Amino acid sequence: MTTIVVCGLGGTIAMTATPGGGAAPALSAGDLVSAVPGAAALGLDLALVDVANVPSASLRPADIVALSRLINDLLAGGADGVVVTQGTDTLEECAYLLDLLHDRPEPVVVTGSMRPALVAGADGPANLLAALTVAADPGARGRGVLVAFADDIHTAARVRKTHTTSVAAFVSATGGPVGQVVEGRARFVGAGGHRVVLPRPAGDLLPRVPLVVAALGADAPDRDLAADGLVVAALGAGHLPHWWAEPLAELADRMPVVLASRTLAGPVLTGTYSYPGSERDLIGRALIPAGFLDPAKARILLLAVLAGGGDRQRVAAAFAEAAGVAAPAGR
Ligand code: ASP
């Protein structure tokens, strides 16, 4: 029998109405599984672990590193796959951090819901059923951490939450989903691309990596910024007001500064524009292009490399690997 462990972290999928109004986390992993029509018909041996029961905005990277350790132990102990249920607000970041630290072939599938349990059309049971289906499917092996949501199967590196309330909020705008759950089976349509895998950081001490979002006429980040690394969510294909270039060059002398795009899809360019504040100018000032990684995921990659003791060179190599290109020489 295939053994799948469901690890509950909380989120809307585990939320019910509170007496004072509004929803808050309440349900255990066991409650979630018993609310899934059709779960028994999967014929799985299900094990349950209540890891936490919190809204996902209150999760920290250290929680996810600890979860990654737990998942590794569960799989080493004989589980065939793991499903993680959590809040959707930070799901894309948690899934990507888990993916970066997952070096085993067994599937790990993250899901959640947009609607709380017990409301009309609650999507939690269907999403959990899809996640269990994917986690038990041999075709999911070797694909790292996947996200199952609204019957789509996404890679952790590409999926984004693109709507505040829609049950179809999760989208892989670059490349599309790698599969779907159809008629109760996981059907894969894409390979999913190269994955970066990093050593799990030993301690809980995680570096300070702010994310700064550029906007029309906005002030540049402070040259004295106290941080270990910085991600800039730039305009368009990696462009910034010209007055950001100097302060960022100074910051890039002290810490890795990563250039991502605040747009929904597509990569940061590396060789098209050459005006002050363009991607060529900024990369020439030692900013590291994020490739197809969106700003939040770029921050997770930077965090994970720095937490493993990586220097600027290792950061540049990791981003080049994530982008599927050779690491730039030099600095
Ligand atoms: N606020 C919730 C959370 O992320 C939203 C959700 O789960 O959909 O925990």
Explain the overall architecture:
The protein has 331 residues and is an alpha/beta fold. The chain has 2 domains: 186 residues, L-asparaginase, N-terminal domain (Rossmann fold); 112 residues, Rossmann fold, CATH 3.40.50. Helix content is 26%, strand content 21%. It has 8 helices and 16 strands. The strands form 4 sheets. An 8-stranded mixed sheet has the order 4-1-5-6-7-8-11-12. Strand 5, helix 3 and strand 6 form a beta-alpha-beta unit. Helix 7 crosses helix 8. The C terminus is likely disordered. The protein binds aspartic acid. Aspartic acid binds next to loops. It holds the Pfam family Asparaginase_C. GO terms for molecular function: asparaginase activity. This is L-asparaginase.
Q: Strand content of the residues, in percent?
A: 15-25%
CATH hierarchy class name of the largest domain: Alpha Beta
**Overall pLDDT level:** 95
CATH T-level fold name of the largest domain: Rossmann fold
How large, in whole angstroms, is the Cα Rg? 20 Å
Helix content: 25-40%
Bound molecules: aspartic acid
- Work out the count of structural domains: 2
End-to-end Cα distance, whole Å, is: 52 Å
Strand arrangement within the widest β-sheet reads 4-1-5-6-7-8-11-12
Q: What order do the SSEs take from the amino end to the carboxyl end, as H and E?
A: EEEHEHEHEHEEEEEEEEHEHEHH
Largest sheet: 8 strands, mixed
Q: Count up the helices.
A: 8
CATH architecture label name of the largest domain:
3-Layer(aba) Sandwich
**Fourth-level CATH superfamily of the largest domain:** L-asparaginase, N-terminal domain
Number of strands: 16
Helix-strand category: alpha/beta
Q: Which segments are poorly predicted (pLDDT under 50) over 5 or more consecutive residues? A: 326-331
The gross shape turns out to be globular
Domain L-asparaginase N-terminal: 4-188
InterPro entries: AsnASE_II, Asp/glu_Ase-like_sf, Asparaginase/glutaminase-like, Asparaginase_C, L-asparaginase_C, L-asparaginase_N, L-asparaginase_N_sf
Binding site for substrate: 56, 88-89
Protein name: L-asparaginase
